[in-house]
Amino acid sequence: MTASAIDTPLAEASGLVLAYGNHVAMTPSDFTIPAHGVTAIIGPNGSGKSTLLNSLAGVLQPRSGSLKVLGKPASEAYRQVAYVMQSMALPEGTPITVKEVVAMGRYPTRGWFRPLTKSDRRRIAWAMDLLDVADLARRHLGELSGGQRQRVYVAQGLAQDHVAVLLDEPLTGLDLVSAKTIDDIIHSERERGHSVVLTTHDLDEARAADHVILMNGHVLASGPPEQVLSRRNLELAYGLGSLHDSDLVFIDDPEHGDGPAVDALNPPNPSRHNHRHHH
Amino acid sequence: MTPLDWLAEPFALGFQQRALIGGVIAAVMSSTVGVWLVLRGMSFFGDAFVHAVLPGIAAAMLFDFSPYLGAAIAAVVMVGGIEFIHRQTALKEDTAIGLLFVGMMALGVAIISKSPSFTGSLTSILFGDTFGVTWAAIQGEAVMAAIVVVGSLVLYRPLLGLSFSATKASTLGLKPRLTHALLLAMIALAVIGSFQAVGTLLVFGLLVGPPATAALLSRTVPRMIATSILLALAAVVVGLTLSYRLGTAGAATIALVAVGTFFVVMHATWLRRILARRRAARAETRAQEVTA
After folding, report:
1. Range of the domain at A225
2. In chain B, what residues touch A111 (CB-CB under 8 Å)?
3. CA distances (Å), B31 to each of A243, B18, B190, B254, B257, in order?
4. For residue A189, what pLDDT band results from cuts at 50, 70 and 90?
């Protein structure tokens, strides 16, 4: 990889507006997502997190403004960007095995027609081993638990040639084993010099990231977590009422970093655990 | 009469053989592209589509031009109309499909009613003229079938991606919008190519029946396609045999067999599940008795 490619930010947006039909999901926003490291997109429900992820994946075209992914229009960067679907997403009725789902990760490289090679098959096997789904290879996607399915979707992303991974709420509602496995992958991707972008509801996850984008219908703040996740910003994002009454908020206080403030923002989630990306 | 004669008799004459060949070709193309139609959850669209080609074919008969061209124009009008309503209004797609469905059907009946042989023309378009299929029609049908079957197999990756998730397909560079358009074109070809052999309405039995049955029996899409083709071929042979023996309409009997097979297989799989569960429960009880 050339030096200039390494220095190119994962994404650069200016005046970016995102909309579905008549519904504007994100009003004009400017932000930069650095190359390498973990970026967390956080915000309340319906704040446009998944929409932003879709635009980074090139699925949703900007309504106005500009968005460059790896220095190119987002729709042209798909070969280098692996997009991981939510575990809830299940193509019902499509008879498809785990191995075939993971193999789809090779389609961007092989295109519509070119057959898979030995090295493709090795890559598929490697990704399945990494996510611990090799023994599920012949299982039907519909027979898996949510956690297993999410691991299969991450394996699909890793089977793809990529420099960046986009994950839509990768740890939400998962069993502990699956959450741990995927959390490890987030670390290892970061260590390999790849960019990881994930959406989350969880303040702990956001604080553990290298870079945070706080959303509420637009990008409220973008930068290092200690700067972005200030009490004032969180009040702006989640509404004054949700934090105002609580004396338990210690978000901008490093002494109380793991205080119960998160509980004021998040519904109880049995699988939540502390998966910091910095050790 | 030997059992072999009993089976061969319905296909002894030239027109019966043409009916069989026309039906077999219709079965192969419809059941192949039908797999993708079922996986995409487009059955209602398919149903509307087979009605919507009627005015094109009717106009072709009245003004004496190729019925294939007429059906193709009607297909384009139908798809364009749905897309136009979808873009201009906030209505859901099924409402747009429903509007075009009845509108095009009514237009077709109105056009045919201007023809002197109203009932005969309408019946043969809608329900097929199985025993009146000509060699020329079979040739045209074979060309369209080749395009549809090759297309359904060659476009395996983009079609699988689209059935899996349009969003995911897009991020894999599989161009879901183009794939969807190609799928519509293949469905249109299957309907247009089959209408003389099995009729525009009853081709729907082969588009949905065998693929739906195959879905109950298959764990992968390639197996689903193979099973669907075999079931469709069986429906044609059994349907035509029954039609000969019972004196019923050819295309209708084929469609009835295709759909009837679905219910038989559905019940058989349901029964198999129950028996398997009982066997497992019995084995468990026995194991408990042994331990006790």
Report:
1. 3-229
2. 157, 173
3. 59, 20, 9, 13, 14
4. very high
Residue A112 is nearest to which of B155, B167, B168, comparing CB atoms? B155
Max avg pLDDT among A145-149, B115-119, B209-213, B278-282: B209-213
Contact A89 B165 (CB under 8 A): yes
Asked if A93 lies within 8 A of B38 by C-beta distance, the reply is: yes
Q: Kindly report the pTM of this predicted structure.
A: 0.84
Minimal CA separation from A97 to chain B, in Å: 7
Q: Give dist(CA B67, CA B119) in Å, integer.
A: 18
Q: In terms of Cα–Cα distance, which of B254, B251, B20, B15 is closest to B123?
A: B251
Here the CATH number for the domain that contains residue B112 is 1.10.3470.10
Q: What is the pLDDT of residues B79-130, one digit of tens each?
A: 899 889 988 888 888 899 999 999 999 999 898 888 777 666 777 777 777 7
Which structural domain range is residue B131 located in?
Answer: 3-291
φ and ψ at residue A39, rounded to 5 degrees:
-115, 125
Q: Domains in chain B: how many in total?
A: 1
Q: Which residue of A has its CA nearest to B39?
A: A94
- Chain B residue with CA closest to A51: the answer is B167
- Verify whether the Cβ–Cβ distance B219 to A101 is below 8 Å: no
From chain B, the residues in CB contact with A59 under 8 A are: 167, 170-171
Domain-located, residue A244: no
What domain count does chain A have? Answer: 1
Pull the structure tokens for residue B104. Answer: 């095009």
ipTM rounded to 2 decimals? 0.81
Say which CATH number the domain at A99 has: 3.40.50.300
